[in-house]
Structure formats: structure tokens, C-alpha cells
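LOG
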Amino acid sequence: MNYKNVRPGRFLSRPNRFIAEVELDDTILRVHVKNTGRCKELLLPGRKVYLAKAENPARKTLYDLIAVEKPRDGKPDLLINLDSQVVNDAAEDWLRTRLPYGASLRREVTYGSSRFDFQIMSEKGCSFLEVKGVTLEDRGIVRFPDAPTERGVKHLQELRRAKQAGFGAGVLFVIQMKEAQLFQPNEGTHPAFGQALRDAYEAGVQLLCMDCLVAPDSIRLDAPVPMQLRSGPSVQQETLFPMMFDFLT
């Protein structure tokens, strides 16, 4: 997935979750933030960000904020894509190169009371796939969500019911950066999501985490990242390292 007309800027503030103030060529602009998550550890004053020029010239905001550089002790800055809207496009690019012969892929398909990101039809039957973008990182550990998501819990519960009804079901966590060592559900922010994720996994819903090759003007899914579905020093850790969904093999 590629962007057009990308330029670097300096983050100043975020008046609300949709708008950021950014310095671009000595001019202060209001730009659209393509991520409604908190991103508090990323969007800090002075951070280098990247802006993509909007294709609609009539828009009030002429640029979208799509990526940020996160400083790290003793390491180069980590480039993190923040565009939650591009995650499904990048996932589709990746999925289409892995579909079994004769399989079809549809986006935004309703099942029960939820709308899933993808439906895959093949000789193995019908499968539903939900995609979640991950931007929260701490010393190589990435977590989801960065804010409570009742919608995410609902998706997991619906996927579990779909699996129990005989459909294929999976969740793809797209880590919008490289160098992630481990994924965990963010129990501190939304314990109900962590429990729903474990319940879904135990019911047979497949889970996969993929990191991304990120440049200021592009993002592409790259390699699997292991997962731990329980966190905390007193918890017996189970590490999962799935390589692929079975409905893609």
C-alpha cells in the first residue's frame, strides 16, 4: 500500500481526536488524524511526523497525519504507521497473494449483528476475518487495544459464534511497525477484550499477528510475530506462533 505526496512535519498538539496541529515548512497547519485511538505515547510535541496530501482539494484539512517517528534509547527512531484506515487495504494486498486457487475475497460482510472486514470463500467453505491495527509499543512488546473497545469485544464474540456454527473465523493483528518481539492483549486498558480474545481462541477462532515494513510513503505486511494471550508476572505464559490461517492453506 503506497501513499502519494508525503511530506515530513513536526507535531505540535492534538486539539481533538480527529485534528492535529503540525508545523510544515515554518507554517502551522491543522491536519486530519487518521487514527481515533489515544496514541498518547506517540503524538508528543516535537515528534517528527509524516503527512499525506489529501486527494480532495475541497477538504478543510489539506493533509492527513499517517506516521510518526518514536525515539528509543540507544536505537534509531522507530517509524510507526498511524493510519487506521489503511490497515485493511494493506491486509487485502497481503491476503490476495495467499488465497487458495479459486477462492474469493469480499470486504465488509455482515454476519449476525457484526460486520466483518473480510469474507473468504473457498473449497473449505466460508470464513470470516477481522483485522485490527496495532500501534502501541513498549520495548518490543506490542499491545491492543490502546483504548477500551466494546466494538472489538463484540467482534470477538461474534467470531466465536460463527466458528461454533461451522464457519472459519480469524483475527489478524496488523502491527504497524517492525521490530516487534511479542504481542499481548492490553489487559490494563481493557481486560474484557483480553478475556474475549482468550475465549475466542479456545473456541477455535484463529489468531495471527503480522508486522509491517513501514516507510513514510508505504506499508506492507511482512512477518509473523508471536503472541501471549495472558500477561502479568504471576501468570503462566503460553506463547503462540501461528504462521498462517488454515483457510488460506
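LOG (cont.) second protein
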Amino acid sequence: MKLWEKETKVSEIVERYTVGRDLEFDIQLAPYDVLGSLAHTEMLASIDLLTQEEKSEIHGELKSIYKDIQSGEFQIQEGVEDIHSQVELLLTERLGDVGKKIHSGRSRNDQVLVDLKLFMRQEIKEITEGTSVLFDRLIQLSDQYKDVLMPGYTHMQVAMPSSFGLWFGAYAESLADDLYMMQSAYKIVNKNPLGSGAGFGSSFPLNRKLTTELLGFDDLNYNVVYAMMGRGKAERSMAMGMSAIAATLSKFAMDVCLYMGQDFSFVSFPDELTTGSSIMPHKKNPDVFELMRGKCNRIQALPNDIALMTANLPVGYHREMQLIKEVLFPTIQDLKDCLFMCDFMLQKVVINEALIEKDKYKYLFSVEETNKLVLAGVPFRDAYKQVGMAIEKGDFNPTREVNHSHDGSIGNLGNQEIKAQMESVVKSFQFEKWEKSIGLLVS
């Protein structure tokens, strides 16, 4: 079944090529297609394009389909072109001509747009929740190990004392900033394109503000041409937010891969969370974090992938836009999986608390010893030279203590302030607003 088909049959070869993997991803849009149709038909009834009786019949069946989707009993039948056709086919089979009325005042173009916006909005919520869980884990570890020192590096050379509290807390604060990026994407995603039709509006007196309210969007995409231009833009914006989170995870994964190595031995994990070698009995490989690093590096390419698919397209709809789903949908799942696995692994992380006592790390404290001399009244350049000479002569024996008290330092991590930042950005999404609207729509 094709909504646009008339008398002439399309070549099977052409159909197979143009459909591609679309049905594979369309099934993920099923609940959102029903939600869009519930809002659209509510609006049609408000402008007398449906009677109240017709609306009630349609809503009853749409809610039944929605329940089937939620229970996993829904599928797109063989020969049906897409999710939109499947929903309309079911309504027509069950309600006859009444089911054929739901498409008045809309095009598949704005139907796909609203489905994607609703889908991305839900996925942003789930990514935000996963990021918050990992953030809490990192803050907990930062507080737990705030007094355990570790080497800090510049140029991959031992530099100055750091701490596990600083290390975990740094990645927590990075995630908070990443969600500001995601919040910007969310503001673009959470606007209603429904009613823009094929990109040029409709001669029907559509009440677009009503569908905006029913679906819990923050606002409209007002200009109908721009609403269609948003195809690809919203996805790219979300991809940029995802890329920011992925960059943080990739960097953290790289640290863990290094720090698990025998040359570092900063952290370890139980045997059941690592893998072995087929030839070397001693190996405990960081496969989880290596895959996380690879997946997150790939996620960082997503904004560019989407940009290149859409960069040279003139205004209006073009068929290659469906390819965006092929790169976006699996990548969303990859990011959610990485967030989950990172938290899962960190629940069992083991910290080498005696690490700093190794002789090779005594030079970490050269700046601390220099600063002690400065505090005692020695000019900095003279203090620097004294410590340097002691190192050259082999007479450098520091106390291996640090006294950092300023904001964000080893002795004053600022975790409460970082938590407040995270709570503020998560709260600003206001997911509960549209959750309430959707709850009313399907009740």
C-alpha cells in the first residue's frame, strides 16, 4: 500500500532501492506516528473537518494501535510502504471511509517531521537520564577518593600531583557542560512542524497552535517552508549534542585503557569485567573501554555525516533525507549503551590507593617543595633553582603532601557546585511538561 500510488506500478527494482532500510527504522517511529495522528485528528474535529463521532471512532482505534505498539504486538505488514501507510491502512480496515479522512490537511512530509521530532525528544530525554546516572557515579567516586593522590601529566610526562577525586570530578563537570550542548539541540527539536504540509502550508484553516499544545511542544516552527528546511537540521543539532557527550566518554575510556595497563596500574576491574588472551595467560584486556572509545569516536563523526547528506540540497523535501535515519537511529542506541556500560563498569572499579608512594613519582612534588620555599620568603626563581639542583644531585626527598585549598583544587573539589550545575541544566529541559501532554492525549 502506498498513499501516493494511482494506476501505474513502480518497478520492483526501483522500489527496493528507494525503500532501502527505511522500514527497519520506521518501526521505531510507530508510537510517535500514532501520537501525531491523535493530535492532528483532534485538531481536524476542532475545525469541523471531522465530526465529533468520527473523531471518537478514530481515537478509539488509534489508542488501540498505540497499546499494540507498546506491548510489542504491532508490525508493518508486507507490501506496506511505511509506518504512516500502515496506521492509515489499519484505520481504514477497521473504520472504512472514516479512516481515510485522517490525512486531510497534512502531507507525509510534515507527518515524518513530527514523528522524528517526537522520537528525538524522547531519545534526548533518555540520553539525558543516562548522562545524569553516570554523572552521579563520577561524583560519588570523586568524593570517595578525594584524598587519594595520583600523578598528573603534561606532554605525557609526570608533572604534578593530581587526585582520583579530581580525575573523576573533571569528567563529571564535563558531562554537565555537554548537556548544555544537548539542551540547545532540544530547543530546536521541541518545536512543532505539523501543519506545514509538503512545506507550503494548506488551504484548510488548520489550528497549528492546538496541535502544539496537544503534543507538548514548546512552540511552533512558524514558517512552513522553514519547517521543511528543519529536516536534517534538527537531527544534526541533536548529533552535535551527542557528539559532545561522546567526546567526554571517549577521552575517559582512553584514560581507563592507559591506567589499567601494567605500566600504570592506577585502576583495575574484577576478572569477569575484562577479557583474556588466547596465548598470554596473564592478560586482562579493557575491551569494554576500547569498544566504548571506538563507538564514541564514531559518534563524533555523526554531525558531519548528516551535514554532508544535506549540505547541497535546495529548499524542499528530497528523498535522501530518509538516509539520515540509517546513521542517526543506531548511533543513538550506541551512545545510550556506552553511558550504561560506563556506569556499570565504574560500580566495580578498584583504585590503587598506594600508587603515589612509588619512587618514580617523587618528582611530582617538585612544585610543592618550590612553593614551600616561596612561602618561607625565598624568591620564586631562587626557590626553583634550589629544588632543581637538589633533583640533579639526587638529594630530592619530598614529604609527598599537598595543601591545595582554592576552588576546584585537590583539597576543594567543588563537587557541590558542579552538582548544582547539573541539576540546573537537567531541570531546564522540563520533560515533565510534554510527558503530561502525551499522557492526556493517550488516556
